[in-house]
Amino acid sequence: MAKGHKKKTHSDTMNMSFGDRLRFVRQFRELSQQQLGDKASLQTTAISHFETGTRTPHIVNLIRLVKALDISADYLLGIKPIDFKEQTNGKE
Question: What is the pTM of this model?
């Protein structure tokens, strides 16, 4: 990690937008946009639009995303932080 940059923690992500939290979790899970799209039955362009904030997901697509990422909708929506260490057996 570059000097002066600290690793983001779960609490840091609560100040992010929906799209930034989505990207954070996708990258944390080491998935490409294509892989997430495949897991969630969504087009890669939809994932890109959600991450850049040009579109917001319909509730059905939100459910697909949270299932594919194994994450709570409350977290993605910025309602409630989560502890990634608990969710991933210590991987952070």
Answer: 0.78
- Please choose, from the candidates 5, 8, 34, the residue with its C-alpha nearest in 3D space to the C-alpha of residue 20: 8
**Cα 31–chain centre separation:** 10
Residue 87 gets which letter from DSSP?
H
Please report the domains of the chain, with CATH numbers, ordered by start residue. 12-81 (1.10.260.40)
Write the DSSP string, 8-77.
--TTGGGGS-HHHHHHHHHHHTT--HHHHHHHHT--HHHHHHHHHTSS---HHHHHHHHHHHT--HHHHT
The maximal CA–CA distance of the chain, rounded, in angstroms, is 41
> What is the tens place of the pLDDT at every residue in 9-64?
555 677 889 999 999 999 999 999 999 999 999 999 999 999 999 999 999 999 99
